[in-house]
């Protein structure tokens, strides 16, 4: 498959659909140097983006959390996503809406005079973890930790927060793993590099409290699904040594959807009935 910079199609850029290969920015774009960028990952199923407006609302909020205002409304972002899907002839796709501080008068840490730019790109994308969706992903345990919310705005889906995730995933892949589980700054279990995590024990579902990492839209959806099924969901701080006592585990995220986990470090998990049920029910929900 061609690189992401060398494809046919259209990308929505600053209010216009442009040829894919011409959707470029200057090398002195502020976001390239200082990570002043926010984004959303969304999936379109059968022509409908799952929870599209929630993603658009979060994109605007992420911009505000890192101190810039995206110059488009939710309705305008929704229209941009729809136009990009149609321009590329896609009904089942991954949707990436993102905004950043561009090149302008400032080229230091401060960049208040630089324009805020925005783009939407869409492409076909299968299972994020490949065949792990069926047999269970294998996760490494990352050495890098999610930062204290007093250090970085953990509820922003901001590019800068993913630097340690990239390093952690590269290390995991070098070990033959699909991903890595990260702890937070206190040593509690947090999440994978780009997905939230759930555990099952004695009929209850346990998931880390999202007080130092992003409270994912898919995470919230799955909690609602479990609650409707009458299954108790316990949101709490989880210590790494507790992994030994959990029976099942899965990851949630727009890209990951619901992916079973078979192993984290030296700990093994069953790809059990509840995990499979939630994965199947989520698949039906997003296509309903």
UniProtKB/TrEMBL annotation:
Top-level EC class as recorded in UniProt: transferase
Keywords: Aminotransferase, Transferase
Originating species: Lutimaribacter degradans
EC number assigned by the record: 2.6.1.42
Protein name as it appears in the record: Branched-chain amino acid aminotransferase
